[in-house]
Design a protein that fits this description.
284 residues; 8-stranded parallel beta barrel
Length: 284
């Protein structure tokens, strides 16, 4: 498997490389929180000598309720992410939902993420691949909850035809069989690596319980099993994952989005230290 490098930052993910860490917030709440979280995570990653990309979403478009908090929107969100990038000198990851967003997002984000529910949208894939290639970034493509690992070959083929090969990281985040739950098959990691691409584990969203939480007004929201995040992350890294995707918050129970799946920022150092050791042992 060929390793991939974020050219503007000299950060590499793949065989024989350090555990690649995509860490941050579920959604942008405000600039101060983004700076606080990114500063602490950067310090931990620097101390552990782990490649680090700061992630936060400007819009959470896939919500169970129309009343759910979605974020500041693209214009304000990208401004906040650009400020974090400039002040802290860190690469940025964020997701997008529509083709017209590809150009402005790729100008700020070094790692552009395709959400799991949208990976079969050809126009989105093509626009995002071309914009990301133009800006020397990489794609982070989440395997949809309804796809088999082998189905990701078609997604990679679209990207290769639209832009270029060797610019995509695939992400495992569980499979849905209904009943408000997700199941993670660790064998999927090596199945996707057979395509010659690095693979990450989104341990945060893998423990979601979609639509399982009742909310005020009779609606629903995603539940989660926060205690399972470290279990999924450790198991996936032991199974060969090249990177890990984790979301933190200083006060997870007060997070405006997906708090039940979010980890406390205070536990980030201990968890990443453990995951680094598992990554090293798995490749010894």
């Amino acid at each position: 498997m060929a390793a991939l490098t974020l050219q503007n930052w000299n950060l590499t993910i793949g065989d024989g490389k350090a555990l690649f860490c995509i860490l941050g917030l579920n959604v942008i709440e405000d600039l101060d929180l983004a700076l606080q979280t990114a500063t602490e995570l950067k310090q931990i990653a620097d101390d552990l000598k782990l490649p680090f990309v700061f992630k936060a979403s400007f819009d959470k478009a896939n919500r169970s309720s129309i009343n759910s908090f979605r974020g500041p929107g693209m214009a304000e969100g990208l401004k906040i992410l650009a400020t974090v990038k400039d002040k802290l000198k860190v690469p940025i990851a964020t997701d997008l939902h529509e083709p017209f967003q590809a150009e402005p997002v790729a100008e700020v984000a070094d790692l552009v993420q395709i959400p799991a529910f949208l990976v079969r949208q050809t126009d989105l894939i093509v626009a995002t691949a071309r914009a990301t290639q133009k800006n020397k970034g990489l794609l982070h493509v989440k395997k949809a909850q309804f796809l088999a690992p082998s189905d990701c070959k078609s997604i990679l083929h679209k990207i290769e035809q639209a832009a270029a090969p060797n610019m995509t990281i695939l992400c495992e985040r569980g499979s849905a069989f209904g009943y408000n739950n997700l199941i993670v098959d660790m064998l999927a990691i090596q199945e996707m690596q057979k395509f010659g691409v690095p693979v990450t584990i989104d341990a945060t969203h893998a423990v979601q319980l979609p639509g399982a939480k009742a909310v005020e007004g009779g609606g629903v929201a995603a539940g989660g099993r926060r205690e399972g995040v470290s279990v999924i992350a450790a198991a996936a890294i032991a199974a060969g994952a090249d990177g890990v995707f984790l979301e933190f918050h200083p006060e997870p129970d007060k997070a405006k989005c997906d708090g039940p799946s979010c980890l406390p920022l205070s536990g980030a150092r201990a968890l990443l230290t453990r995951l680094k050791a598992i990554h090293a042992a798995a490749r010894a």
